[in-house]
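Action item from last week, closing it out:
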Amino acid sequence: MRDIALQGYVRSVTQRLIGPQISDLRIYLVRDPDFNASMFPNGMMLVHTGLLARTRSEAQLAAVLGHECGHYLAAAATGFEANAGAAYDDRKAQWLEAIADTRPVLIEEQVKLNDPGASLYLVNNLAQDGWNGMLRYYEGEVYRLRGEPSDAALAAAAYAAAVDYPEAPPEAHRAHGYAQIKAGNVEEGRRALARYLELNPTATDAEMVRFTLGL
């Protein structure tokens, strides 16, 4: 995964944990939805996107990174890791700022696995810090993809909740629009689709949406 800013952030967290010994490590972000990180004897650490997707604060990330560094630093790091974990600040605001641009991509990666139980757990876990338009949109996507008898209504409700947030992603308005049209609320649906085009006029499906609107 090529995200220079986020990779630098993860490296800075690791440096806070182990200090100058950071120079011995090579840290890579790996596009893998599994909740995992791993350290190799040569100092290469792999941090999976599945871990980043589920992390709610810098302290949570640091706990995993510290554990992996312990494998590399062996007995000398074991005591240090415990002490660092006990004293490490939450730094949730810093983490949320660092992950903001990447988090939607990571959640979508999980949702597309079509494992609704895991995806809903992820969304609801992140929502402990407060719901937002992005989380409600992906909640709706989980229900839509699951496709059980009651899921169309659950998805529609999630999309409707999503677009109530000013920062809702453009895709939430598109999903809300089609859900409303399918439910017979044509005018509401058309307004939502028009809003989608307003927010994302160069979308790859813009022509299809314009066709739906008769434009």
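Closing note: The chain has two domains: 4-99, 104-213.
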